[in-house]
Specification:
alpha/beta; six-stranded mixed beta sheet; about 600 residues; seven-stranded mixed beta sheet; globular
Length: about 600
């Protein structure tokens, strides 16, 4: 075993510099970077390129309910984890539901619990008539975790005290997690009063090297608000409640919040606190006093969000001559099978483009009908504090429906390829009049350095130490030679691609390579980077990610050469992960350090 493979202290690790055929300059980074778990990408904290990324950041969300805070929080956490920062969400609502049962407070909403339930033949619980519980036992879990709109009345002093206490308890948990090694913590709550925000600011003054940033989500688009309200009726607060009763209670909750709501502004500016306001999911962004590196990453990402219906298709190129020979890297042309796949791919995308337009139109029609029916029966449901006016006339309802239906029209469909021949040849059968085809160097395959053009068997024979090092830690391992890359390098190379995917408002097909597809899908599907290099993504598959309010929805198609067409298959079972069994050098050797990604991912075979 080479001495270079042993786990050495960080300061003793060798470094690699040079430029890559992929473009750009490699920063002064360790040859094996996995000795520092919290700085996976050392260009952010090592060598000559130093930043303040050793500081920790608390992101405190602000905003009324149904304004997209959860949407923003989940996307932001997914992006920061993918970049390599230890990131975790601390949700106050989850803790609030465990604070006590609703009947401990001034509950004007008993009818919500006892009358609003759907009829069921199952035995009700003793406290709320909830089906599925023994009537002789204590209250069910639903009673223990539900709070009606009266709990959020600003005049309900007891409930307000409990809400403030819960918010501060969650904040303490957040700080303990940061002290234990976390980097970015997100306090997910309304935090809609100046008093609450000042209490959080005061508490953070006791901490060193922890920065604070408020992120406020404001929404004036009433169809988005009404759609979010519909989604809220399925939250844990309303399990088993009739949807109409749940919606009425949630709208009452909103009115209570609006009475006490104060937007971030002058009060925070007096304290020189950093903040960012996201208006209508990125249509307008206001940033104040943004100074830190982590904060700038947050603002940059949030500026590029949108809710337009679209699909992100990812596929590997058709089979190349090097694929047929089992060689990695290189710049070979397509084989005959690869050209056949390329033709089938163009036909499939033509068909799916039309099918998706129909799906969007039908969805928007249903949403428009639901919103218009709700608007006609529930006037005055939008926040005056945010300038929204309820649609209370037939003309306004018609305008709303037409606005939703116009969203189905996409300005274009783009096809992105790498700069290597096998991807450009895969895209050559797309009609240039109907598709915008772009060749992007950042999508080039991971560069294998001295191992380019070799088979894995040849690498094992010629570079046995390198072969074993890669098996031990595929994410951090960097191929030998000038320009050799690791998966960590690939993540940094694809950062701008990810931001562009979030920014564009129409569908796109990425024709790329295995390492690139793994990295992109790891971001889109929130798969930890520890699993990313071991994902099985064979040739002949198309992965379609559709952004939705609570995450990306994945569909997968497999190419059938006998039919010369694609067949949809089960998506969860497709993203398989191989765990190579490689013995460590000695019994006392430490295993590879984990990825900073917080999310757990379970692969189904």
């Amino acid at each position: 075993m080479s001495e270079r493979l042993r786990r050495l202290p960080y300061e003793n690790l060798g470094t690699t510099e040079g430029s890559s055929p992929m473009g750009g300059v490699f920063f002064d980074t360790p040859r094996f970077a996995n000795s520092v778990p919290f700085f996976r990408f050392q260009r952010f904290g090592h060598g000559e390129v130093r930043t303040d990324s050793d500081h920790k950041l608390v992101v405190v969300m602000v905003g009324l309910p149904a304004r997209g805070k959860s949407y923003i929080v989940k996307k932001l956490k997914r992006y920061l984890s993918w970049l390599g920062f230890q990131t975790k969400i601390f949700n106050v609502g989850d803790r609030r539901r465990l604070a006590g049962s609703a009947d401990e407070y001034e509950t004007a909403g008993e009818d919500l619990q006892r009358v609003g339930r759907k009829d069921s033949g199952e035995a009700p619980c003793s406290g709320c008539s909830s089906p599925g519980a023994d009537a002789q036992t204590a209250e069910c879990a639903q009673c223990e975790t539900r709070h009606s709109s009266a709990f959020f009345d600003p005049d309900n002093k007891k409930a307000r005290q409990i809400r403030e206490q819960v918010a501060l308890e969650v904040f303490e948990d957040l700080l303990r997690w940061l002290q234990a090694g976390g980097q970015i913590a997100i306090h997910d709550a309304t935090n809609s009063t100046i008093e609450r925000r000042h209490a959080l600011i005061s508490r953070l003054k006791c901490e060193t090297d922890v920065n604070l940033m408020f992120v406020e989500s404001i929404c004036t688009d009433r169809d988005i608000i009404n759609r979010n309200i519909k989604l809220k009726t399925h939250s844990p607060d309303y399990v088993g409640i009739d949807p109409e009763v749940a919606e009425a209670d949630f709208r009452a909750r909103l009115r209570n919040y609006e009475r006490a709501y104060r937007s971030v502004g002058a009060a925070e500016e007096k304290l020189d606190v950093q903040y960012c306001k996201i208006i209508d999911v990125g249509k307008k962004v206001i940033a104040y006093n943004i100074q830190g590196f982590l904060e700038s990453q947050v603002v940059f990402y949030l500026m590029n969000m949108n809710l337009e219906p679209r699909v992100i298709y990812i596929t590997r190129h058709g089979e190349s001559e090097d694929n047929a020979a089992g060689r990695i890297g290189g710049d070979a042309s397509l084989s005959a099978n690869g050209s056949k796949y390329a033709r089938a791919l163009a036909r499939f995308i033509d068909r799916r483009r039309l099918e998706f337009a129909v799906e969007v139109e039908e969805y928007n029609r249903l949403v428009a009908q639901t919103i218009c029916s709700t608007a006609s029966s529930t006037p005055g449901t939008c926040s005056e504090a945010e300038g929204a006016v309820s649609p209370d006339s037939a003309a306004d309802a018609l305008r709303l429906e037409q606005s939703l239906l116009r969203r189905r029209v996409q300005p274009g469909f783009e096809v992105w390829t790498s700069m290597l021949k096998r991807t450009m040849e895969t895209a050559e059968f797309f009609d240039a009049q109907r598709y915008r085809i772009k060749n992007i160097r950042s999508l080039n395959e991971i560069y294998a350095g001295k191992c380019e053009g070799m088979t894995y068997q040849e690498i094992a024979q010629k570079f046995p130490d390198e072969f074993e090092a890669r098996q031990l830690d595929k994410f951090y391992y960097r191929y030998p030679g000038i320009g050799g890359e690791s998966y960590a390098d690939v993540v940094m190379r694809l950062q701008q691609v990810i931001v562009e995917l979030e920014r564009i408002r129409h569908s796109v097909l990425l024709v790329t390579h295995r390492a690139m597809a793994r990295t992109l899908l790891a971001y889109l599907m929130d798969i930890p980077t520890t699993h990313m290099p071991s994902m099985e993504l064979p040739l002949g598959y198309i992965y379609a990610c559709e952004p939705r309010p609570f995450g990306n929805f994945l569909r997968v198609w497999r190419y059938d050469p006998l039919r010369d067409d694609f067949v949809e298959i089960d998506a969860p079972s497709t993203l398989k992960i191989r765990y190579p069994q490689v013995s460590l050098p000695t019994a006392t050797s430490a295993p590879p350090l984990p990825s900073p990604a917080e999310t757990a991912y379970s692969a189904k075979n």
